[in-house]
Amino acid sequence: MKSLPNILTALRLVLALYMFVALATAAGGTPWLSEQLTIEQQFALQRWAFIAFVIAATTDWFDGWLARKMDAVSVWGAILDPIGDKVLVCGAVLGLMALGPQPLVLLPAGLILFREFTVSALREVGAGKGVKLPVTMLAKWKTALQLTALGAELLVASWGAFGLPQTPELLGPVTLAAHALFWLAAVVTLITGAQYWEQTRKALATD
């Protein structure tokens, strides 16, 4: 049973990969297969991709909670968990971009991706120097905010796939709220990135 948290983390990686492939295929990014899909099949892929994202995002909370509850915190889990988070976030961002022009979310999406890759590089450089970058509380909230915002954006982008009303009175406010949440996630993401950069700088300066 103590392997359950790591199983959930691995499931998040699998679901993240499926979500991205499904969205890319629905958007026409898979040669030969995409061009044979009907509109309904494309919509089905978008729905299943969204469901996979929601399940994967849920495991992000459960795996850590279970690891602490079952006293099953492990080195392997500590390695896999941030990887799973970054794969899910990056896969969702790329899948969102694949669904079509998203001018209002293009800048925050790019900033989020740049930050994730930069922090990963900082961790790698720091590890080589014996410097550890512990996850801050704000960074944990950042991940939750990213996943919530991406879920909202994916829902808006797949609005027609769920057969939801296309009335401007409903879609307009939902879209505005999703965009605002995504921009907020990008701002918090940059703040945490700056914090990690400063931690690394100070640690290396005293090395």
In brief, what are we looking at here?
This protein is mostly helical.
SSE arrangement:
Elements: H1 4-26, H2 39-69, H3 75-98, H4 103-128, H5 137-157, H6 168-205
Using brief descriptors, characterize the structure shown.
globular; mainly alpha; Four Helix Bundle (Hemerythrin (Met), subunit A); 0% strand; 207 residues
The assigned structural class equals mainly alpha
Rounded mean pLDDT score: 87
The first-level CATH class name: Mainly Alpha
Number of E strands: 0
Shape: globular
Percent of residues in beta strands: under 5%
CATH architecture: Up-down Bundle
Helix content: over 70%
Radius of gyration: 18 Å
CATH topology: Four Helix Bundle (Hemerythrin (Met), subunit A)
Order of helices and strands: HHHHHH
List the domain count as a whole number: 1
Query: Largest sheet at a glance?
Result: none
Separation of the first and last Cα atoms: 41 Å
| Uncertain ranges | none
Number of helical stretches of at least 4 residues: 6
